[in-house]
Amino acid sequence: MGSGSYVCGEETALIESLEGQRGEPRNRPPFPVDTGYKNEPSVVNNVETLCWAACILANGSEWFKGFGTAASPGLKLFSVSGDCLHPGVYEFPFGITIAKLLSVVDGEGAWAVQIGGASGQCLPRAQFDRRLAFEDLSTGGSVIIFGPDRDLLDVAENFLQFFASESCGQCTPCREGNLKLLDGVRLLKEGRCSMRYLDELCALGETMQLASKCGLGQSSPNAFLSIVENFRGEIMGRVPASPNGPVQL
Predict the structure, then answer these.
(1) Any bridge partners for residue 109, and if so which?
(2) Where do you find CATH 3.10.20.600 in the chain?
(3) Could you give phi then psi for residue 136, rounded to 5 degrees?
(4) Phi/psi of residue 146, nearest 5 degrees
(5) Per-residue pLDDT tens for 86-109?
(6) 14 pLDDT band (50/70/90 cuts)?
């Protein structure tokens, strides 16, 4: 029995937890395939991967490749939540567009969709023709739908609160960076974040993507960065007219 946390979705942190240690990522190399659980070679897979492997063994690879696209063959489970009439877990072929998915779950009124969960990308209506596939929008399967009444800065704040809490604290980019981004979003909501500081926050997010030790810190800035990029109009409405702003913390 181990202690679970969000970071235990990273394979080496999961192995640490299974061994009864604090769930935090290991330095690599060595990799789990060489030195994993109790220092033995180990393979870590998601349950869905193992389920599809069983289906392929039972039905053949050609059956599986009959779904999806040439670059992304097969079917995928999608967990759909948020502002739609029919949230739930759906099985779709790879390559389905966001618009098609929204029509199935009765979420056509959405003005934003988060693809890939809290660490994914927030996309505007103009990009709803994009496809959920490795060659376009690669995702673990989480789709969160936001209606026109949602404040996306509230969304970003909620995600960053979660990541600041779930960071294991080993590396500085993740441990400190998520707190800085969270403070920055709160300044934006108050209309106290200057354009210069907003640019610095985006640069910090890009540094976190490159310098964090594991996938948590590497992906935690994604929602914030995509909201700033894709919903610039809303963000600009919260930024003071002066380049430096009235208050800088």
Answers:
(1) none
(2) 71-146
(3) -130, -85
(4) -120, 125
(5) 999 999 999 999 999 999 999 999
(6) very high
This prediction's pTM: 0.88
Structure tokens, 40:
């033995």
Tell me: pLDDT of 237 over 80: no
Q: Which residues of 79-117 are buried (b: 16+ CB within 10 A; e: fewer)?
A: ebebbbeebeebebbbbbbbbebbeebebeebbbbbbbb
Residues of the chain with CATH 1.20.1440.230: 152-236
- From CA 21, how far away is CA 134, in angstroms rounded? 34
DSSP of 110-124:
-SEEEESGGGSEEEE
H-state helical runs in the chain: 11-18, 47-59, 61-65, 98-105, 152-166, 172-190, 195-211, 215-219, 222-230, 232-236
CATH of segment(s) 71-146: 3.10.20.600
Task: Give the confidence band of 249 by pLDDT, cuts at 50, 70, 90.
Answer: very low
Cα pseudo-dihedral 152, 117, 25, 2, rounded to 10: 120
Query: Could you report the per-residue pLDDT of 79-91, keeping only the tens digit for each?
Result: 999 999 999 999 9
Q: At the topology level of CATH, where does 152-236 sit?
A: de novo design (two linked rop proteins) (1.20.1440)
